[in-house]
Amino acid sequence: MKHILITTLALALGAASAAAQDVQSRIIRFGYGLNEDSNQGRAVRHFAEQVATLSNGKLKVRGFGAAALGSDVQMQGALIGGAQEMMVGSTATLVGTVKEFAVWDIPFLFANEKEADPVLDGPVGQKLLDSLQAQGLVGLVYWENGFRNLTNSRHKIEKAEDLKGIKLRVMQNPVFLDTFNAAGANAVPMPFSELFTALETGAVDGQENPVTTILSSKFYEVQKHLTISNHVYSPWVVLMSKSWWDKLSDDEKKILQEAAVASRTFEREDTRAGSVKALEELKAAGMEVSTMPNEEIAKLREIAAPITAKVVENVGQPLWNDVQAELSKIRAAK
Ligand code: KDG
């Protein structure tokens, strides 16, 4: 009897709080590019659970993984057009929409996550998210894709010069294209959704992604060599359609923003723990893993320097100065 009473009371309270909230019943289509069994997939499900709890089940998030709703660029278009409500994808493919996002593509910008988190979540990162609104997108939070590493099917890459002649898939982004071409590779821009087949058929020799992605996308099945280079830190950005966002009540916006912040904490913890496990699992799967020595990393930095200068010119010196000021504060506080 007591159990029934408590349950009834809880339901009544839940109903009362829902009634107190100005929340409609809505379905939210949330698209993403990695497999459902990936850090991206787990974080989307965590976000969905948070939203359901905070809205007493009224806001239902449906995750669509493995690029079921299209590539990052296609989903960005669907959000801008109001045909899809949410997605998470790489900031690198946003540079065609807001060119200043290229600042996050600069090789070796961040030395570790302790630098990346406060810069992305602080005033500079937020200003970039806010700039998306004029383009029909709402940037809620950054998630972690992670530090990118090289894989290929041809030979070990231990020196910067070993990149010469490697047909390397890169994200559809001028900084990645320019950097790897300058390093002597033959950079091939391609949507993530086409990458596994391109590696399997030999259309490209290699690619670069965080180890969590290399594992969850099973690239070890078609790639022999993994080189730990950590050549750039890649953020993801959780995006919403602005035209859809503008129809929401303040209560609904608050729920989605709160769930997004909670999912950011979950996703970063999950991805960082997953990175450690992924490296071990990739070795166990038979990948030959090597780490690029510091002196070779220094050569990559040198190769990237003129491309960094071009990005700074493109995004504007004030933005570059703001990022460097944030980094100086973080490094001084260490
Ligand atoms: O859809 C997949 C992308 O969100 C992300 O993984 C981008 O790192 C990326 C890549 O290599 O395309």
How would you summarize what this structure contains?
The chain has 334 residues and is an alpha/beta fold. It has helices at residues 2-20, 39-54, 72-81, 113-121, 123-131, 174-182, 195-201, 211-216, 242-245, 250-284, 294-315, 317-333, and strands spanning 26-31, 59-64, 86-90, 137-147, 149-152, 167-170, 186-189, 206-209, 225-228, 233-241, 288-291. The protein folds into 2 domains: 25-145 and 235-278, 3-Layer(aba) Sandwich (D-Maltodextrin-Binding Protein, domain 2), CATH 3.40.190.170; 149-232 and 280-332, 3-Layer(aba) Sandwich (D-Maltodextrin-Binding Protein, domain 2).
- Structural classification: alpha/beta
Low-confidence segments = none
Ions and ligands: 2-keto-3-deoxygluconate
Kindly provide the name of the CATH class of the largest domain.
Alpha Beta
CATH topology of the largest domain: D-Maltodextrin-Binding Protein, domain 2
Could you tell me the mean pLDDT? 95
How much strand content do the residues show? 15-25%
Walk me through this protein's architecture.
There is one protein chain. The chain has 334 residues and is of the alpha/beta class. It has two domains: 165 residues, D-Maltodextrin-Binding Protein, domain 2 (3-Layer(aba) Sandwich), CATH 3.40.190; 137 residues, Bacterial extracellular solute-binding protein, family 7 (D-Maltodextrin-Binding Protein, domain 2, 3-Layer(aba) Sandwich). Helices cover 49% and strands 18% of the residues. It is built from twelve helices and eleven strands. Helix 6 packs across helix 11. Bound molecules: 2-keto-3-deoxygluconate. 2-keto-3-deoxygluconate binds next to strand 3 and strand 10.
